Amino acid sequence: MADEKVPSYPDVEQTLFDDKDGAPPAQVLKHANDADEAMKAFEDHDGELLVLDEATNRRLLRKIDLNILPLLCVVYGLNYLDKTTLSYASVMGIKKDIGLVNDDYQWLGSMFYFGYLAWEYPTNRLLQRLPLAKYSSFCIILWGLVLCCMAAVKNFSGAIAVRFFLGIFEAAVTPGFALFSSQWYTKKEQGTRIGIWFSFNGFAQIFGGLVAYGIAKGAALHGSSIAPWKIVFLVTGLLTATIGCLFLFFVPDNQLNARWLSKNDRRLAVERVRVNQQGIGNKHFKAYQLKEALLDPLTWAMVFFALTGDIPNGGISNFFSQLIVSFGYTADQSLLYGTPGGAVEVVSLIVCGYLGDRLGNRILVSTSGLMISILGMILIVALPLSNDGGRLAGYYLTQASPTGFVALLSLISSNVAGYTKKTTVAALYLIGYCVGNIIGPQTFRPKDAPRYVPAEITIICCWAACLVDLLFIWWYCQNQNKKKAAFRAQPQYRKLENQEWLDLTDK
After folding, report:
1. Cis peptide before 446 (omega within 30 of 0)
2. Confidence band (pLDDT; 50, 70, 90) for 264?
3. How far apart are CA 353 and CA 503, in angstroms?
4. Residue 131: left if φ>0, alpha if ψ -120 to 50, beta else—which one?
């Protein structure tokens, strides 16, 4: 039965029934010949039982955390920093230097997500077919080098091309990291870990604001041979490419080729995630899993959330520097005063991730961040222009908004089973994310400056719709849990040996 402490997640235990002659279903035998990569760890054991005691499990978890989590965190922070350097550049002279007029800047903000959107499904297929860590490293290195090219652009068309290719290469990071999380961590560990590496968006906002402020002030005091905004792109791009090389060297494709694990620990590291019933990877495309993903109501509820919730994200992430200037601060001050927003994001994601795992209810816990964000945007809209401190505090509160997005991302990681289905749902979820982020910058119209009230009201409405959607997802998951518990209680139900490694779906 589903754990009573986690009623909001659909239980992914498979429900298999005997045929009339007592043999396993033919469909299951077919899948056994197309099993997960994890089966390789046990193919020479002939049914030998691996014992994983609590002390060994804790030792392995510490080792995995030390070797995997830091690089996931740093790379994900750079993922956010690299696509939002444009916001810092917007108040450092890029608009004048490359001749941006009318709504050119809005289209630069959106173009990143056109590239992301175009490559999202292909990159998910490549994440399944190719070695996970090696393909991820390739994308990290290339997006860092592409970002450096932004320092060389001379006009709008050049900047558009760079932003498009930046989106293509960054498209792999979020679905890839969701796969890493499901591959290395148990369901009860994933919410906290995903919250931790996603929270580095906030650390990146703090780091990026300080770096941009330092470069701007240094250039003003001592001069520079190139424009300060170009230095920002070069520093962040070269840093990303360097970290990508380290990722290639240190992060394994799965437990079976982890150099920092002994041969026996590799098998134990696979055994510890048996409880997920999702394996560690399968390179075969399965059409029935694609069909199941497309027909699952939960898939489209998640896509709706990603699309609607990322309209605010696309607007705020590209306009937060200009938004802070509209509160009455200078351009240099906007670089510095944007950094506390990153701290709010870090705290909200880590706290919600931890409480979600601890209480067994990631969805309901995540609604708190959305409610705080709605309050923040109401302050921005309702407070008078003279109250610059109160409106700035409202902006900080809006940075708690990613809690719902991260909760659903962890749900894809832990509760969507079947490798083709998981990568398909992740791709659709992030396609919704792209569409929302494309729309978002377009809500900030030049004619509405400096207050952008229509965009701010749009953001409030989007977050309110997301709140309702999260409650629906919570109800739907509870309902699925009850149906599956009743199904498994039937006397014909039985579980097959190594069923967890057959790459079956959560249905």
Report:
1. no
2. confident
3. 27
4. beta
